[in-house]
Structures are given as structure tokens and as C-alpha cells.
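note to self — DONT lose this again. spent like an hour looking for the file last time. sequence + predicted structure for the chain T wanted, 176 res
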Amino acid sequence: MSAFRTTTVRFSFKAVVLAAALAAGGAVQASAREVVPFKAAAEPGTIVVRTGERHLYLVVGNGEAIRYPVAVGKPGKQWFGSEMVDGKHLRPAWVPPEDVKKDNPNLPEIIPGGAPNNPMGAAALTLSGGKYAIHGTNRPELIGTFASYGCIRMHNDDVADLYERVSVGARVVVSK
């Protein structure tokens, strides 16, 4: 299970995202999000992740959704189903889960929020199952790939946008 911590911030949210993006790689990734037609039966505010497409959709209603490019779980690390957003965290600290630590034994026990080697990026939406999150990244070049241990990774500016639009309790559906 990952551990998350919210950091008190005295700057605007956009300033925090910019700082995290700069710390993660020295550049701010341009967003590729767009409003697209969306015909699946889902209530507005629902997050739908289609791993095969490597896209996350935030349903806005009227047959539309905001589509964001994402990185998803590697083969054998993906999960499918429905969860709820149970927490929203800015610049969260990261405790490597047991399976990540097993594959990378030299990882520290905790990586502070905002650190360049923190894979959580600017923000995280934790999910009710306790194991996964939708979060930013310190590796923007991996967006659009199968890269994680099951978490959904987004560009830092995209996770900031989603963070502002989604409430705790929002439904998250992950499918192929």
C-alpha cells in the first residue's frame, strides 16, 4: 500500500504544479487533453480509464468527456474494475509498495513530496482499494505507454486539471 501526505502550500495550485514539473525534469509538458464525444453510459464526474487506448476520460455530460493521455500498468500489473476517489493530495510523499520495492531494492523507504525522484508528480487522487492512484509523474516521456505497477500516470498539468474538476467520491472505472 502506498502512503500519501498532503503538503501545506502557500502558493497557487498552478505554481505548485509548475514547480513540481520543473523539479521532475526541467520542462513543463504541454497538455494533450481535449473534449471528445463519449457515448459510454456513465454519469458526469465519472472517470473512465481505457488501458488499451492509454486514455483517461472525465465524463462531463451531453455525450462528451475530457480525454487525457495516460500511462497505465505494465502487462501483468494492470487491474480492471470500479473504485472511488477517496483522497486528493498535493505533492504527496511516496512509500514504494512491496512489489515495487522487491523489483527495486535500492529504493528508499519514503520519497518526500516534490523530490525529483518522486514518481507521484504534482498531485494524486487515491483510490478506495488502497493500492492504486491516479497521479502526476516525474517521467513524462512514459505517458502513452504501459509503464506502471497499476497506477494511472498523467502529465503534471493534466493531473492538476483533473484534481480541480474531481471530488472525493467520484467513481473510477478501469477497463481494457
